What does this fold into?
Amino acid sequence: MTLTRSEATIFANAQRPDHGSRDAAVVLCWKWLPCDNGCAIESPPFARAVFGELRINSWRCMRINRAAHIPWAMFVLVASALASLFYVTKFYPQRVPSGLRFFGETPPDHATIGGTPLGLIFGAISLGIFVFAALLGVRKKWPILRIGHVQRWLRGHIWLTLLTVPLILLHSGFQLGGPMTTLLMGLYAVVMLSGIYGLVLQHRMPTLMKEQLPAEIVYEQIPQIRAQLCAAAQRLGKTYEPEPARRIGDRSAPTALPTALSTAAMPDVSMYAVLKTPSAAEKLMGDVTVRGTPIKPEAITDSEATEANAEVPVVDPASETVLADFIERELMPYLEARRGEKFRLGHARQAEETFRHLKLRVAGAYQARVEEMQGWCDERRLLDAQTRMQHRLHGWLFFHVPLSFLLLLLTAWHAFVTLFYY
It folds into this structure.
């Protein structure tokens, strides 16, 4: 269910914590997040049950808003041009017109450019930007702090760190220097490249997720949904376990109705109804169609279920043996695995072929059960695909953040040694 921005504002205001913020806020599992242009709402379970799939301009919020970055880009360009002008007029006055020689006609007599007053200014500004960039994590930890908008902090983090590229090059005089400064330059290059890589991912990955995932759920709920898939498969497997007391046509013997109506007695394996909503019942995922149960269990009334259960089920021991063996040998290991791509059912085309052969081995009355299990596997592959994309989207931070703090510490030590020992 997609809501308009006005409807989203009504829902957000109804659940807004009392923080006194003038910006629009959105509830995220009882946490509020400020949002500028469009909001990605991943509602808590009670709201999800009411609104269904609540996604409101989510990709606009995650992608880069170019208009908001234009002033920052202009500032970085102007600041870089001014820093370059000061650098040239200070150390190469003969290369500029006489009217622009602010620092005299002769260059300073100093062993290194970084040790001159102008070089120290470049270095101090860069160190201050590093400290500001490190404080972004603190600002995100405490969103109730009224020290600027989080989005403005993020834009400042991006563009001010890019400004350090010309500042550090001018501070070093385009030279690596000794072992300590060479280590700093190499670490700085790695941090900047990892940050640019993450910036590209933050811009491109949401579009890929929107195109490749037919439905999206809250990432933190994926383990619970996988557990529900396993529980449903275990319950189904127990209904097909051979029992000596079972007799054909015996109504007292426990059996599983091999029809779509039997899902009324099964738990809803997806609390978000990813594959059971009419809009997500059958969607394309690459070259394979993701199927869901076309009959919603909650739509079946008690009288209809009673009437269906009153009929004597058609039991085929051979088909039940085949299904029980398939659940034990292939379905359960796949659903319980941490990484599903290691199994045949973890690949769409191989799973399609497997279930096609399975349908040929069971009676027609059990086709609905096979399709139900196929739907569970389709949903598990959907969860695995979203997990991999989320790891790509955020995994680079485990590499970028520690190196950034190491760079900050080494830069502070470099500044201390330069000021007090040289």
The longest strand covers residues 282-285. Residues 179-212 form the longest helix (34 residues). Strands lie at 25-27, 32-34, 282-285, 288-291.
